[in-house]
Amino acid sequence: MNQIASADNATPTRSLRIRLRIIIALVLLPLLFLNSGIFYFLYQGIGEYDNALDETIEKLIPLSELAFLVVQAPMPANDYLLHHRKSERSNFQLIQKEVDRGFDRVIKIYQDEEKILKILQTARSKWEEGKVISLDILLDKNADDRPGEIEAMESLDELLSHVGFTLSSIRSDLLTSTLQRYKIANLIGEKMPYVALTFFLTSITLIGSGVYYLYVSVSRPIKSLHVGAQLFRQGEFQHRIRKWSDDELGQLVDTLNKMAEKIVEDRQELNRLATTDPLTGLVNQRQFWQTLERELSRLGRTGGALTLITFDLDHFKSVNDRYGHSAGDQVLVETAKRMGDCLRPVDILARYGGEEMVAILPDTDCTGAMDAAERVRLVIQNNPVHLADGTSISVTVSAGVTTTRNSQDTAKALFDRADLALYGAKESGRNCVVSQC
Question: How far apart are CA 151 and CA 73, in angstroms?
Fold first, then answer.
């Protein structure tokens, strides 16, 4: 954001206004004998274009930032329903403050435009409804009513999608209005050679040069901006608008490109947060199921075998009770790392919940998976976890192994068999590997 701010405040190496004044000077030479009305008409056309540029810089960026924040707003509530992390409440409070400030800013910008102001006020009222729903979810007001929570989440998504669509529509209208004003100014410029031809034949060269210079320095950058804005509107944030010069248009291009880069980075970070367990850095449960479904689909096309291993740390509750939850977290992190080191790069290790881990081993039969599970078991058993305070904690792990039996195996059936094998390992005295192949 600091880089974006510096781009806004930077002094252009060659001002767009200076170039427009050069064009005006070239056009005025053959127009000295025209009446004041024609001169006023030309001045108004150029002024209309300047106003369009100012409006673009002033109004487009706050709307874009607000629309992006509104898209993020349902995520804490959604993640809270999935994982019940209390930290999502503070995440939502941060987003809520940013959205409220964003609405205050755009409403102030449009306070003199009654039609747009009314739309923004309606959008804000929808946002206020969304805030209430989000807080109900995050405060567990419907904790005993799971279908009610899901219905509330769907209502929240619908409300905020409507708000996002409304803000995008205003942004689109702003771009359209700017382009219409530019067309008016451009139309005036195109007619100038015909007016000048009436008075001086020599003015044709001057006016032609001025129009061409206007096209090179203004029309092409505006076209690039228009195309880029349309692509951004469609979600193509990987696109980068071409920068033709270092004037005000160049500053706007820099700002829009940096905004797109920030959106891409934020999306990548949101995707990482949505698919990764925050404590261990492993794949989370939701991503595990998606990966397992994808691997089974691939297996149906290519054939081969796929094996699932479920791990559970034995008597882990006693570790938390004896050493504290902070120590328990350190044990989980170190154990997850050791498990990952025992597996291949192509294997997928996920934290399913609590002290339970699950590994997907593509192109592996039951024998290979049993060897891998036994390797993990021995590494965990023989290597106590050493805490920063010097405490050593010894833990063991039980494992259940299963493999695909036919192409009709579902993800749930495969997981249930692995879970049943894990139960067998627990019943067999723990710290062992049992298969359901």
Answer: 17
Q: Which of 392, 393, 396, 380 is nearest to 429 (CA)?
A: 396
pLDDT in tens, 192-203: 556 555 655 666
> Considering only CA atoms, which of 224, 370, 364 is closest in space to residue 305?
364
Architecture of domain 285-435: 2-Layer Sandwich (3.30)
**Domain extent listing, the chain:** 2-275, 285-435
Q: What is the pLDDT of residues 368-402, one digit of tens each?
A: 999 999 999 999 999 999 988 889 999 999 999 99
Q: What does pTM read for this prediction? A: 0.46
Cα–Cα distances (Å) from 264 to 32, 236, 277, in that order, read: 53, 10, 21
- 160 to each of 59, 153, 156, how far by Cα in Å? 21, 11, 6
C-beta separation of 312 from 355 below 8 A = yes
pLDDT category, 186, cuts 50, 70, 90? low
Contact (CB, 8 A) for 74 and 160: yes
Q: For tokens 């259940």, name the residue.
A: 400
Q: And the tokens for 96?
A: 């809520």
Q: Are 156 and 138 in contact (CB under 8 A)?
A: no
Q: Look at residue 392 and give its three-state secondary structure.
A: strand
